[in-house]
């Protein structure tokens, strides 16, 4: 577990790279078996150590891109969506529709949203940079407060939510 401004982050790795970054209240956590053995320290694994270091730099404002090796598991379509997410630059956002068009079919908006929500490597594969067509915040596996924090950390201010009063 790594401390961060959005709470504790559980980083999971294989021998090939990072397989997941999960927040405490993550909507789609992996099964306990998929988590593997808990190590006493991130220093015990080179992928975990590098990831923790890069996340610390990101939250301190000194890192805008990540270099740690990734090893996400998912369907071919999910992997295509996650690849699109990694192409969204720091400080920018995209809509689900824009991602669907980048994948070659504007009708894939819902499927893109589902794949985005199943992204196992939060923050590094920046699903938080995807917003609604009207500029509003939409779902985030770690909660909307975390999404808002990450967007603001990157200098983005989402559209104000409509209120009754």
From TrEMBL:
DNA damage recorded as keyword: yes
EC identifiers of the protein: 2.1.1.63
UniProt keyword Iron present: no
Subcellular location as annotated: Cytoplasm
EC primary class: transferase
CDD domains: ATase
Residue ranges occupied by any Methylated-DNA-[protein]-cysteine S-methyltransferase DNA binding domain in the UniProt entry: 76-155
Gene3D superfamilies reported for this sequence: Methylated DNA-protein cysteine methyltransferase domain, Winged helix-like DNA-binding domain superfamily/Winged helix DNA-binding domain
SUPFAM superfamilies linked to this entry: Methylated DNA-protein cysteine methyltransferase domain, Methylated DNA-protein cysteine methyltransferase, C-terminal domain
Catalytic reaction list: a 6-O-methyl-2'-deoxyguanosine in DNA + L-cysteinyl-[protein] = S-methyl-L-cysteinyl-[protein] + a 2'-deoxyguanosine in DNA; a 4-O-methyl-thymidine in DNA + L-cysteinyl-[protein] = a thymidine in DNA + S-methyl-L-cysteinyl-[protein]
UniProt keyword terms in alphabetical order: Cytoplasm, DNA damage, DNA repair, Methyltransferase, Transferase
Active site: 127
Main location: cytoplasm
Annotated ranges, domain Methylguanine DNA methyltransferase ribonuclease-like: 3-71
Function: Involved in the cellular defense against the biological effects of O6-methylguanine (O6-MeG) and O4-methylthymine (O4-MeT) in DNA. Repairs the methylated nucleobase in DNA by stoichiometrically transferring the methyl group to a cysteine residue in the enzyme. This is a suicide reaction: the enzyme is irreversibly inactivated.
Further remark: This enzyme catalyzes only one turnover and therefore is not strictly catalytic. According to one definition, an enzyme is a biocatalyst that acts repeatedly and over many reaction cycles.
Name of this chain's protein: Methylated-DNA--protein-cysteine methyltransferase
Organism of origin: Paeniglutamicibacter antarcticus
């Amino acid at each position: 577990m790594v401390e961060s401004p959005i709470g504790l982050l559980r980083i999971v790795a294989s021998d090939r790279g990072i397989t997941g970054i999960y927040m405490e209240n993550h909507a789609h956590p992996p099964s306990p078996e998929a988590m593997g053995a808990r190590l006493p320290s991130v220093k015990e694994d080179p992928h975990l150590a590098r990831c923790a270091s890069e996340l610390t730099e990101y939250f301190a404002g000194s890192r805008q891109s990540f270099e740690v090796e990734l090893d996400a598991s998912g369907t071919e379509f999910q992997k295509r969506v996650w690849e699109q997410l990694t192409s969204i630059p720091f400080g920018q956002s995209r809509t689900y529709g824009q991602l669907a068009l980048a994948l070659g079919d504007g009708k894939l908006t819902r499927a893109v949203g589902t794949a985005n929500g199943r992204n196992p490597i939060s923050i590094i594969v920046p699903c938080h940079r995807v917003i609604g067509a009207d500029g509003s915040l939409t779902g985030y596996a770690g909660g909307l407060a975390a999404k808002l924090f990450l967007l603001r950390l990157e200098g983005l201010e989402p559209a104000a939510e409509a209120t009754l009063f």
